[in-house]
Amino acid sequence: MWFKKKRGLKPTPRREVPDGLWLKCKECGEILYRKELEKNFWVCEKCGYHFKMPAKKYIEILTDSFVEKENSIETTNPLEFKGYSEKLTADFEKTGLKEAIVVGEAKIGSHRVALGVMDFRFVGGSLGSVVGEKVKRLIKLALSKKIPLIIVGASGGARMQEGILSLMQMAKTASALAELSNAHIPYISILTNPTTAGVMASYASLGDIVMAEPKALIGFAGPRVIEQTIKQELPEGFQKSEFLLEHGLLDIVVPRHKLKTTLMKTLDFFSRCKSGCASGTKNHR
Amino acid sequence: MTRIWLEFERPIADLERKIEELQTIASDESLDVSEEIEKLKAKSAELKKQVYSNLTPWQRVQLARHLNRPYLSDYIKLMFTDFLELHGDGCFRDDPAMIAGIGKIDGKSVVLVGHEKGRKTKDKLYRNFGMAHPEGYRKALRVMKIGEKFGKPIISLIDTPGAYPGIGAEERGQAQAIAQNIKAMSTLRVPIIVIVTGEGGSGGALGIGVGDIVLVQEYAFYSVISPEGCASILWRDAKKAPDAAEALHITAQDLLKLKVIDGIIKEPEGGAHRDYEKSASILKQTILENLNHLSSIPPDALIEKRLNKFESMGIYKKT
């Protein structure tokens, strides 16, 4: 044989945001220049495909200033789940993030808000004890400062490696949101690709306003699980933002480059409420 | 109902059969084998004690899923009087996988919600094996709100493999329905007692699982994902479910240790399916004691306690 298969050759890991100078759009196959793509908020110029984007990048494009909070709580391995600690270390090294959500206080135009942005690259954006606790504390921040809450979702759901503790984060976050609702403080939930399962079945779908980026996968069960259960092919566009909009499950689909202006409009609306509908933006104009 | 023995119960089944055979022979031929029978019974009792006090998590999962395990319909008959089932979510459909209704327990008016798996094949299909659609969760919430409006406590009995993963379920907002229920239940102004009586299947369980007191029956379990699902994701092999059952910490004892439940309800030896009456009577007694205690707490204090309870769940490190 004139060639020999190389042994031990590892396949290159799939990257959500490849490092190369050029990269290929997953949707239309167009070859895109990285720098141009970055300028275009990681949206394909040709077909409008929205690449996944790191949390920090969202903060950059959505806010005018941001102060991170609650970064001192750390994930442990409460069930001593095999391989979990290694996974946490690996994802920390890969992303520089300690967990799958960044939370803090931000300014968007003249509005002060409590902002949380999830990052899918960290254990699939899954909801463990720390993500749940950070979301809860963010809600409490919005409550105590009477400022609107904004959460950008990106998650595959609950964090299996934390077992039942992970499931209970759904109850934890939803309970805190019930308090926020009672205090009449607005909550805007922004869904990105993907936002599913445990996160969607708790805080991500509980916004007063729920927005989604185009063509994001949004739902309860994963498409593969559904396919296996019903043993038939899923319809075109199933569980995508537009599908949810059509079925009345979303308020609005917003392309990434319009997110900030749409958010500002929404925040303006809330800030003009008479007292009793506190949004903390009293100083606005 | 035919008695079903699980694999690990084989030795017990063999002994029990021997005892039965001896008894038949004895009565047929009027022989006195009572001494022999007594001996075997003692042996059987010893064996049962040994088997049931050393169950692995996977064996517990099998007991929780036992085909003879009492379901909600059985408990309704055994624990409640004047039960009136209330149907439909008022929007789309009546979901038979979820039962909701009003009734009395020991003379006290309560609202009851819970999953129903269905006993015989036809019934199981009708009940969708206890896997509810969004309209099931919406029905449960609708009826719970009747309880809130008229000051009647709520009892929620959980037994589901999970919320149904299907096209219709997604089209009608399965995630949204569960999220709305969790949020709404956290501030309902009446006492809520939640009991996992069999399978506590993830979001499908939590969708009716927020309450002041959360209890789990001795052989029931509560998990973020089914052991099979976990095994197929982690090890691409659903057959490794027994390992996943262990890794996920899903048994009643584990749940208590992790502080996600308030207590464990005893079951008759070998599981609730061995003695429906006894199981129901222990359950009823537990519900009554808790109702009594919770009824004395003013609604505002009740809600504050409930919110604190769920808002403090989770394990992490402060640095």
Topology:
The complex is a heterodimer of chains A (285) and B (319).
Chain A: E1 22-24, E2 31-33, H1 34-39, H2 55-62, E3 65-69, E4 73-74, H3 84-95, E5 101-108, E6 111-118, H4 129-145, E7 149-155, H5 163-182, E8 187-196, H6 197-200, E9 209-212, E10 218-219, H7 223-230, H8 241-246, E11 252-253, H9 259-271
Parallel strand pairs in A: 6-7, 7-8, 8-9, 8-10, 9-11
Antiparallel strand pairs in A: 1-2, 3-5, 5-6
Helix pairs in contact in A: 4-5
Chain B: H1 10-29, H2 34-52, H3 57-64, H4 72-79, E1 81-85, E2 98-105, E3 108-115, H5 121-127, H6 134-149, E4 154-160, H7 167-171, H8 174-185, E5 192-201, H9 202-206, E6 213-217, E7 221-223, H10 227-234, H11 241-247, H12 252-257, E8 263-265, H13 276-295, H14 299-311, E9 317-318
Parallel strand pairs in B: 3-4, 4-5, 5-6, 5-7, 6-8
Antiparallel strand pairs in B: 1-2, 2-3
What does this entry look like structurally?
The complex is a heterodimer of chains A (285) and B (319). Residues 274-285 of chain A have low confidence and may be disordered. In chain A, α6 (197-200) links the parallel β8 and β9 (209-212). Chain A has 285 residues and is α/β, with parallel strands linked by helices. Chain A has 2 domains: 20-51, no CATH class; 52-278, Alpha-Beta Complex (2-enoyl-CoA Hydratase, Chain A, domain 1), CATH 3.90.226.10. In chain A, strands 3, 5, 6, 7, 8, 9, 10 and 11 form an 8-stranded mixed beta sheet that branches. A two-stranded antiparallel ribbon of chain A has the order 1-2. Chain A is globular and about 45 Å long. Chain A has helices at residues 34-39, 55-62, 84-95, 129-145, 163-182, 197-200, 223-230, 241-246, 259-271, and strands at 22-24, 31-33, 65-69, 73-74, 101-108, 111-118, 149-155, 187-196, 209-212, 218-219, 252-253. In chain A, α4 packs parallel to α5 (163-182). Chain A is built from 9 helices and 11 strands. In chain A, 33% of the residues lie in helices and 19% in strands. The longest helix of chain B is centred in the first third of the chain and has 20 residues, at 10-29. Chain B is globular. In chain B, a hairpin with a 2-residue loop joins β2 and β3. In chain B, α1 runs antiparallel to α2 (34-52), α3 (57-64) crosses α11 (241-247) and α4 packs across α13. Chain B contains 14 helices and 9 strands. In chain B, strands 1, 2, 3, 4, 5, 6, 7 and 8 form an 8-stranded mixed beta sheet that branches. By secondary structure, chain B is of the alpha/beta class. Chain B has 2 domains: 18-54; 67-311, 2-enoyl-CoA Hydratase, Chain A, domain 1, CATH 3.90.226. The interface between A and B is large, with 61 and 55 residues. β4 (73-74) of chain A pairs antiparallel with β9 of chain B, so a sheet runs across the interface.
